[in-house]
Amino acid sequence: MPELISDFYDLNMLYDQVGKNDALLKKFVDIFLNTIPDDMQALKDAIDWEDYDKAKSAAHKMKSSYAIMGADWAYNLCMEMEEMAKNRIETEKLPEIFWELSDKFTMMVNRLKEITF
């Protein structure tokens, strides 16, 4: 059985949903690892260009991916950025929150790549 819990994710729910099938869990992890970097870049670009509609959409899109991976910390950061962008409040904090998400995401990726299926 792969390591399902770390400081950055909790894959127990996903593992149960895929019928405790290691190969299927790996497929979901691989999809996450292959799609989130582009989503992160889209969010960074939107923040850099102060395009709050795109920032809101990018943060919203990522929330579900992080939720599936049991990364509540990332889900919460995305939700916070989505609300800030949507309501155009405290937008000056978006870059700082993004970099917190980005740094922890890098650590999460490193942990996920260490999982033995």
Beginning-to-end CA distance, first to last residue: 7 Å
In round numbers, the mean pLDDT is: 95
Rg, Cα atoms, Å: 15 Å
Principal-axes geometry comes out as: elongated
β-strand amount: under 5%
Secondary structure tally, helices: 5
Largest sheet: none
Structural class comes to mainly alpha
Description:
The protein is mainly alpha-helical. Helices cover 74% and strands 0% of the residues. It contains 5 helices and no strands. α2 packs antiparallel against α3. The longest helix has 27 residues. The radius of gyration is 15 Å and the shape is elongated. The N and C termini lie close together (7 Å). The model has no long low-confidence stretch (mean pLDDT 95).
From the structure above, extract its key features.
single chain, 117 residues, mainly alpha
Produce the secondary structure layout.
Layout: H1 12-17, H2 22-48, H3 52-68, H4 72-87, H5 94-114
Helix pairs in contact: 2-3, 2-5, 3-4, 4-5
What's the short version?
This protein is an all-alpha fold and 117 residues long.
